[in-house]
Amino acid sequence: MLEQKVLEILKQNNENYVSGESLSEHLGVTRTSIWKHINSLKEAGYNIESVTRKGYRLIDSSDILNEFEVKNGLQTDLIGNKIVYIKEVDSTNLYARKIALEGAEDGTVVIADAQTAGRGRLGRNWSSMAGKGIWMSVVLRPQISPEEVQIITLGASVAAIKAIYDVTGIRAGIKWPNDIICDGKKVCGILTEMNSEVEMVNFLILGIGINVNHTILDFPDEIKSIATSLAVYSGMNDKKNVKLFRRSDIIKKLLYELEQIYNKIKKGAVKDIIDEWKLYSATLGKQVRVIYKNDTYTGTALDIRDDGRLVVKCDDGCTRDVFSGEVSVRGILGYL
Ligand code: BTN
């Protein structure tokens, strides 16, 4: 698309002016056509300055999310080869499921600027305000059994931790199995949904939500005390420089890290993923409360097994493996 070519040239020129004449010569179109494309880029939110006799320059500070911004500089071979960007959708997981049933390829990524019915784990809602976060689902078609899916989910939390650190410098932790936590509050959640036969997974939808540029007022009242965003957290540590992060940068890094994890899973290097998960754990060694069906017990989180089960040394002396259910960790998400 010509509009993208104009954008690419402006980006390559790093905030320097590019004349309308050179753009029109380079792209083989009239200057009026360049002017029209510049206007539609401005309408899409790009901050482009036009100065007579100098030309156009992109003031590249904006957090614009679209397919081009994610593709531009993406360093993956598979994940993100196809990206579907939607301004507003009910849930990217539902949309991804629909296109997976229609045959969407392994590694297809669905990204929305807003979700009207974002879904969380255990049947909860996921608040997904426009322009503030990363609401994304990846279609994966691994050749694994349903029992092995937990490793992908754990691996996805490792990928999220690494991408967040790489782009923002924030060191988050993982609450088992895959909540990403900053300052005892949730900054990112992962919802993996699968479509499977008895022995084989047909496809997985890996849904990832990251609260990026919310202020604390942006969160609904009922989650204000347990949710945070990367911007809020970075502002807590450095009140003078509250940063807004570019969502497309985090997504690119996240897709890259997800691909590394996916390749490890394909090679059977599950132990590596578990070891990395332990490195970032905000759960092991902590006091936990486990609610599973009608049973509630407390204890200390000891370890995580190679299939992703959490090992808990219960207060009554016995050791139990937790595969699913709700685990609260003392000091995190309001469990005091
Ligand atoms: C959780 O409860 O921790 C999981 C939250 C997962 C939210 C993401 S946002 C993108 C994707 N689409 C959804 O509807 N949910 C997931």
UniProtKB/TrEMBL annotation:
Alphabetized Pfam families for the sequence: BPL_C, BPL_LplA_LipB, HTH_11
Superkingdom in the source lineage: Bacteria
Segments forming domain BPL/LPL catalytic: 68-266
Enzyme class, spelled out: ligase
Gene Ontology CC entries for this record: cytoplasm
DNA-binding region boundaries: 20-39
Catalytic activity: biotin + L-lysyl-[protein] + ATP = N(6)-biotinyl-L-lysyl-[protein] + AMP + diphosphate + H(+)
Cited InterPro entries: aa-tRNA-synth_II/BPL/LPL, ArsR-like_HTH, Bifunct_BirA, Biotin_CoA_COase_ligase, BPL_C, BPL_LPL_catalytic, HTH_11, Transcriptional_repressor_C
Keywords of this entry: ATP-binding, Biotin, DNA-binding, Ligase, Nucleotide-binding, Repressor, Transcription, Transcription regulation
Gene3D superfamilies: 2.30.30.100, Bira Bifunctional Protein, Domain 2 (3.30.930.10), Winged helix-like DNA-binding domain superfamily/Winged helix DNA-binding domain (1.10.10.10)
Residue positions binding biotin: 91-93, 115, 119-121, 186
Enzyme Commission code: 6.3.4.15
One GO process term, biological-process aspect: protein lipoylation
Gene Ontology MF terms in the entry: ATP binding; biotin--[biotin carboxyl-carrier protein] ligase activity; DNA binding; transferase activity
Function: Acts both as a biotin--[acetyl-CoA-carboxylase] ligase and a repressor.
Family membership noted in the UniProt record: Belongs to the biotin--protein ligase family.
Protein name from the UniProt record: Bifunctional ligase/repressor BirA
Organism: Pseudobacteroides cellulosolvens ATCC 35603 = DSM 2933
Gene: birA
